[in-house]
Design goal:
Blueprint: H1 2-43, E1 62-70, H2 76-80, E2 93-95, E3 98-102, E4 107-112, E5 118-123, E6 133-135, E7 138-142, E8 147-152, E9 158-163, E10 173-174, E11 178-183, E12 187-192, E13 198-203, E14 219-223, E15 226-232, E16 237-242, E17 248-253, H3 261-266, E18 270-271, E19 275-279, E20 285-289, E21 295-299, E22 306-310, E23 313-317, E24 321-326, E25 332-337, E26 342-349, E27 352-361, E28 371-380, E29 386-392, E30 396-400, E31 406-411, E32 415-422
Antiparallel strand pairs: 1-32, 2-3, 3-4, 4-5, 6-7, 7-8, 8-9, 10-11, 11-12, 12-13, 14-15, 15-16, 16-17, 18-19, 19-20, 20-21, 22-23, 23-24, 24-25, 26-27, 27-28, 28-29, 30-31, 31-32
Length: 423
Amino acid sequence: MQQISLKRDSGRRTATTLLILIAALLFFCAGTALAKEKKRATGDPFVISKKTSSSKKSVRLKVTAAWKKKLGTRTPWGKLKEIGGHGNSSRPVVYGDTLYIGSGRKVFYALDLVSGDLRWKFKARSMIDGDSAVEGNMVCFGTVAGVLHCLDKNSGKELWSFNARSDIIAAPVISKRYVYFTSTEDRVYALERKSGKKIWSYSAFAPHYVMPRVVSSPILRDTDVGKRLFMLLANGSITCLDAARGKEVWSRKVITSKINAVERARRRVEGNETELFVIDDRGVVVAINHKDGKVKESYPVIKTIDFVISGEKIYLLGEELLVAVERKSGKVLWSTGLDYGKPFSLELSGEHLVVVSTMTEVPFNFKYLAHTYGYVSSYFTATGDESWNKKFKTPVTAINVSNAKTMALVDSKEVLRVFRTEQ
């Protein structure tokens, strides 16, 4: 009898231990959720509520693969310029029914947007790591050796080239008379569109960094005092130039903390008829007056990673939130929680906002089995409700969603993929 009693006591102790473990696990999960919610609510002075968007169910879109093409392989140069696990690949550009893109194999491609068939290709002398621009009859792009190539967009025949002798990453701007571009030595160039002859160049001082010094793609605007060229320099200044002569009109420092040059190059600079918008040191989007460079408005809603502007609305991307803000009043229209890893890029595609993220998974907490995936998710601009999401085996490094029914993206292995979206 004593032996049976001991067995019963042992069984009770085992059951009690299991109940304690289950209770501890539930308490841990609840505590983690509460801590995460508290961080969203009070941990950062910018952070607003997790979700205030409409509860109305939205129609989800169907995303189907159309075609893919291997462009090249990752290179030490591309690997050097990684930020947060994703590279700095050439962005696909869609113009009409043609997709243009450069590669690490020194080849620039023109591909049929529908089928992926090759229309033409151009062999450069060095890797093409930057973005291209298409306007009229020409397409222009730069290489890591600092050569700007301008080609006939229909045939791929080279019209002219210009050697800037420093890596060209940002997309050039093509106007009726000139081609404007920037290089990693903090120099801005204006070339004659027809011949490629240099009209002027502007040099801005920036201290040396471990990473290459990079300037953003210029923004060209018509103002009441003539054409003006705006860009974000690697020293953290927004600079305004007279587009005709290359003379500095004003310059204002907006970034003072030590941020590597490639992250500066990725910082978006947008503009409308009267203002420029950029993210400052605090992660706040600020509006800067075209005429004198003074800050007109600021939007301290969340700590912003990226943003886009559409009409009277500004859409802000944070670490855990996507927020829509009324541009004139700063009123929050809606906010949506993000559930797919670490976001780093926001794009506008018609009535949808497209977020690109990375997520690293570590099976059984064994770091040697860790794998980083890419995520692309889409949200309705009107409500913030999710319209679709897609997971990729490798991180997405560049994306183009300018065509509302087509999504073109490149992953870290330089594979170009094109998808169709439909209801």
